[in-house]
Amino acid sequence: MKVALLSESPADETALRVLVTAVLRQPPQFVAPGFRARGWPNVAQLMPAVLRHLHFNTDADALVVVVDADDSVVHTEPHEAPGYFHPHCRMCQLRAVYRQTTKRLPPAHGRERVLRMIGVAVPAIEAWYLCGRDDQVTEAAWTAGREQGALPYTRANLKHRVYGTDRPSLPHEIDCALREVQRHRRDTRRLEHDFPGFAALAADLRASGARQNVT
Ligand SMILES: [Zn+2]
Question: What φ, ψ does residue 183 adopt, rounded to 5°?
Answer without folding.
Answer: -60, -25
